[in-house]
Records
---
Amino acid sequence: MNRRRPLLAGNWKMHLNIPQAVELAHAVTAACADCTDRDVMLAPPFTALASVALALQGSSVLLGSQNVAWEAQGAFTGEISPPMLTDIGVHMAIIGHSERRQIFFEDDAMINRRLRATLEFGLIPVLCIGETLQDRESGATFTVLEKQLRGALQDVVPEQAEQIVLAYEPVWAIGTGKTASAEQAQEAHHFLRSLLAGMYNKKVAESIRVLYGGSVKPDNIDILMTQADIDGALVGGAALSIDSFKRIIRFQ
Ligand code: 13P
């Protein structure tokens, strides 16, 4: 295994009401009571963030949001600003998820603004990138990944870049039960790390954690985590049940 500290993150998407979210958060803290060699992060829906923040108090489990605005305040109906999130104890913000890109038309420029705002306000961005099935089948995977990475990291300096978490989430693997094979994921992660080395330097590239996301389950986490450039997972469906998420946290 590599030197980077593994990060297992649950993206709860638009699921769970407040009591359900608090119950699951408590179960995750119990499952993580002896996790000293890995980080665990939960990203509940916005309505449950404050309650989950309380549930996580005193535990090492980190709190994440599923998106973040690029301004501190103002006329941005429907958005939540970085200081509003840090106020309630949020540490990380997922940015550029493929569902935001596809359903809500977020583009690289908007994702770049969100990402720079998280860094400015002391949140750690979890930047998601990934190709569609059509991209993969037409041989455009690496071109698409490079465009998304360069677009999101425009004007981000090396000292800032070092702090980000990257998540490779092939769109065709999200919620489909079709995971990328460990080799396919490793190939993409290695490509991204090489790109980062060229855009910044080797030190930055080696320190950034690159998570895999897309149908991560108890039965594929172990093999994914054996790969040199896979530093953790961003988990959707399997993060909604404590049994499956616990097994993922406790990958072997
Ligand atoms: P699934 O694990 O449900 O495929 O979702 C992955 C994802 O989109 C995490 O952000």
---
Amino acid sequence: MQIFKTKSDLSSSLSSLADSLIGFVPTMGALHNGHLELLRQAKKQCSVVVCSIFVNPTQFSNKEDINSYPNTLSDDITKLEKINCDVLYVPDVSDLYTIDEKTKHFNLNGLDNVMEGKFRKGHFDGVATIIEKFFNIIKPHKAYFGQKDLQQILVVKSLTKQLNLPIEIVSVPTIRKENGLAMSSRNKLLSPKHLETASMLYKSLEFCKANKGKFSITNLKNCIKIQFSEQLEVDLEYLEFVDANNLQNISFFQENNNAICIAAYLGGVRLIDNIIF
Ligand code: PAF
């Protein structure tokens, strides 16, 4: 695997691969099986796979959150080599941002006003800012994102369309632990006890799906809220029933494209999950 620290070295190396189908997997490191699944898909579908590891400052509004983000670079490199990733881009902040550079503002068609966008102000402008930079440097044919971050996928699709970039955005199903907990780098920050309790996010989503013919969305929401209020160590931030294509709230289940999205804090760690059916 070739490792590049600067965009100039990376792009001059990639420019010699004119005939290759380039797959791109952007990450913030602390790689887990969910990331490896993105890389496996990319390896299957592309001739050159580029992974980036970069903890993007503009998408964090909370300094503590960015400072506590796990950093496991040497383990990450071992995992990437094992999976035969071709290229790793691991830049410093100064390679991608000038001093005092401001986050760009994007028109994300309201996708950034709900759920994650509502509770993490400016988050998606930060994501779009860095993804636009990556896409311009790497010029991938396909880019891979995990379904756990459903809202991020829709934001990136909208961005790609607005910028008229010929990049296919591939959504890869969420990989889960045995107890249902979605793989996330933040799981590393959970105690063994909280790792068990955290499975209630997915269990709640599955409960709603299983009972969609039996209860109304309002009743399901109330039921889950009560379950969470009984668990003192878990703070439910939101539970939304939306159309998976545009994230608009739904009052009734549709034939398909229903998404239930959840965010909760456990021991100070913020977790999100969703299911689509
Ligand atoms: O999902 C992530 O890890 C990040 O939001 C991404 C896509 C790497 C952009 O910084």
